[in-house]
Amino acid sequence: MKSFLEKLNLQIVVIKLILLGLGFVLLFEGLIYFLFANKMKIMFELIQSYQPEKIRTFSTVLIILGLCLIYFTFKIYNI
User: Fold this and answer.
1) Domain spans of the chain, in order of start
2) Structure pTM?
């Protein structure tokens, strides 16, 4: 059985990984808007032409992929 300090250390590591991942998401999101600022209006207009169900389906696929990535990362690295 793990001691209290080991559990606390594990929780701190998980929090650090979550913050690191969130930081990378924000970094890449910001870079996309920065590098392709001129194309963003065109992309927004294109997205507006899609049916809401198509957007929800695509979003659901991305959510599932993200959850799988998180799950397997934790499983492989025993976090």
Assistant:
1) 1-35, 37-79
2) 0.63
